[in-house]
Amino acid sequence: MARLPRLTLPGYPHHVIQRGNNRQPIVTSAADREMLLGLMEENSRKFNVAIHAYVLMDNHFHLLLTPQTDTGLPQMMQAVGRRYVRYFNDIHLRTGTLWEGRYRSTLLQTDRYLLACMAYMDLNPVRAGLVVQARDYAWSSYGHYAGLRSDRLVTPHPLVWALGNTPFAREAAYAELVQSGISPVQQAALTDSALRGWALGEADFVAQLQKQTLRRVSKSTAGRPSSTLVGE
Question: 123 lies in a domain?
Answer without folding.
Answer: yes
